[in-house]
Design brief:
Elements lengths: L2 E5 L2 E4 L4 E8 L7 E7 L6 E7 L6 E2 L7 E6 L4 E6 L8 E8 L8 E2 L3 E6 L1
Parallel strand pairs: 2-11
Antiparallel strand pairs: 1-3, 3-8, 4-5, 4-9, 5-6, 7-8, 9-10, 9-11
């Protein structure tokens, strides 16, 4: 069984930065894919970015490319989402998720962490 716990959300001014963490408990494999998603009030959940646990295959949504970065700390079994130059439209609940490969659906999800950007 795999459990994901996000943290690091909060209130930040536009232009500021936040780093979200996703702690993964349970065994992980280099081929597994860690994804970040977000859901704003009244909107559908949207893809933010993903990367293999090995660090390869990193992809970002166009709306965050160049501002957000996914990284990981293998020793801590934690994946990070560094968010810079935050905008009002980045306000959402952010979720991390994991799937066993790029060909499979996301199987495990965290509980989400709220990010609020104020102008």
């Amino acid at each position: 069984q795999v459990h994901l716990v996000e943290s690091g959300g909060g209130l930040v001014q536009a232009g500021g930065s936040l780093r979200l963490s996703c702690a993964v408990s349970g065994r992980t494999f280099s081929s597994w894919v860690m994804g970040w998603f977000r859901q704003a009030p009244g909107k559908e959940r949207e893809f933010v970015g993903h990367a293999r646990w090995s660090g390869e295959g990193t992809v970002y949504a166009a709306s965050v490319k160049g501002r957000f970065t996914i990284s990981r700390d293998n020793a801590k079994n934690t994946v990070y989402l560094q968010m810079n130059s935050l905008k009002d439209e980045d306000t959402a609940v952010y979720y991390c998720a994991v799937r066993r490969s790029m060909l499979q659906t996301y199987e495990y999800w965290g509980q989400g962490t709220q990010v609020t950007v104020s102008s």
